[in-house]
Design brief:
The structure is a single chain. The protein has 176 residues and is an alpha+beta fold. 29% of the residues lie in helices and 39% in strands. The protein is built from 5 helices and 7 strands. Helix 3 packs across helix 5 and helix 4 crosses helix 5.
Length: 176
């Protein structure tokens, strides 16, 4: 029997995985942090009015809490194809296999999409004020940037995952 396929979600995959899930566990990825550090030209913005989407930015000593999804047996190839079409649409994400620890103490290796800091869509270092201004205005093929932020923050809260930056952004964007 082959190893199960695990996928680590930290943004929209948490609330819209788009593949058959056999198991979902809150999990932690070390040495990376969730950040609105990728300009979106497809899903939450356009080339003319770019939005922002979450990505994992390398940061030694940091961590990102998200969800580790075990893909339903037999759906691995279809899941990989679906995820690659969705996540690698502009090559700003890199596909990596990273160790995550589930809340119940299991260590699994999960397919994870991380930002390519050399890609032109990378925009790490924007202030929360700058991020809020972009998110409040942007719309792309999958909807408003505001809805993406709000859905992600709400689902993280439902899972008991604290993210002070996302919570602050929600308040800031609602005020714009």
């Amino acid at each position: 029997m082959s190893q199960p396929l695990w996928v680590f979600g930290y943004g929209s995959l948490i609330w819209d995985p788009g593949f058959p899930v056999a198991e979902a566990q809150v999990a932690r990825l070390s040495d990376w942090h969730r950040s609105f550090c990728m300009r979106s030209i497809h899903h939450r913005g356009t080339p003319e009015r770019m939005g922002l989407v979450l990505a994992l930015d390398r940061a030694v000593g940091a961590f990102c809490d998200g969800v580790a999804f075990r893909v339903a047996e037999g759906a691995e190839a279809e899941t990989l194809a679906t995820l690659r079409a969705r996540e690698l649409i502009s090559s700003a994400y890199l596909e990596d296999w990273l160790p995550v620890r589930t809340r119940d103490g299991r260590d699994v290796t999960a397919l994870t999409y991380v930002i390519d800091p050399c890609h032109e869509q990378y925009c790490g270092g924007l202030s929360l004020t700058e991020q809020a201004g972009i998110i409040a205005q942007a719309v792309g093929g999958r909807g408003t940037n505001r809805a993406y932020l709000e859905a992600t923050a709400a689902h993280l809260a439902d899972l008991g995952i604290a993210d002070a930056d996302l919570d602050a952004l929600v308040i800031m964007v609602q005020g714009l």
